[in-house]
Every structure is written in structure tokens, then in C-alpha cells.
What does this fold into?
Amino acid sequence: MPVFRISGIHFEPQAVTVADFPEALRRINRQGALLVQREARENAWQFRDTGALAGSIQAKVEDLTAVVQVPMNQPTAAYAIVMEQGRRPGSRPPPPQALFGWMRRHGIDEQYAWVVAHNIGLRGIPGRHYMERAFQSLQQQLPSIISEVMRGMGYG
It folds into this structure.
């Protein structure tokens, strides 16, 4: 899964005391992680088949680090990467049996699984960029999140 980083955000030296900085960062991370999780789930829900991908997106804040991801131990992990980044035309096709559930839900006979898989490999699949779009939303909303946290801590 791609890693997205935020750069160019800084605090004014007088904006927060050194003792309060870790707590301010935890609060900012918590709000930011929840925002990205909510937006990524909404984005993933737009192209849902079963909704499993949207439901498997998790946000975790530990110490001063925030992570929003589909954990690798989730059944949707491999699918999550393909839905985020897409699949290049000419790449190896998915195993036909991996498409059986999708084909049943869409009324396509499983005897055509090889044809569908072959065409996915041949034509590729465009990336949906559900996480990237959620991260871009965070970048736009981060200044207001920082201001809200700072006001809540009595700094503004």
C-alpha cells in the first residue's frame, strides 16, 4: 500500500509549549486519521461490490504516528492495493478462481472466468485512488484541524 506523507506544515515557535507539543500532535493525528479513514471508506464505497473493502479500512494512532490502512492480514488486502493503484495493461491476469464470487454476484457464469481474467490482464484496471483522494482531503483540511486542536488546548 502506498505511503502518503505531509510536508510543509509547521508550528510557530510561540504557538505551543514543548511540554504540550506531544499531546497536540496526538490530537491532530487522531483527528486526521479519523478524517482519512472516513473519506477513504466513502471513496471505496463508491465502487463497492460487497462493501468489504470499505469496512476493512482501519485507522490507528500510536504515540505520535497515525496510520490508515487495510491491514495485510485482512482478506481484502491484495484487492485494496489493486483498487488503489490499478492494474497495468499487459500485466499478469488474476487467477480465474479469484473472480468466482464477483462473477456470481453479477450473474456471469463461472465458465467465463478465464476470459474475464485474461481481459483484466490485457486491458488492466484503472486505479480508484480511494486512499490518495482521502489523503488529499486531509491536506486541505489540516490547517483547520490544527487550529481547532490548538484552540481546544487554549492556544488560540
In short: Residues 1-72+126-156 form one domain. The first helix runs from residue 21 to 45. The chain has a mean pLDDT of 88.
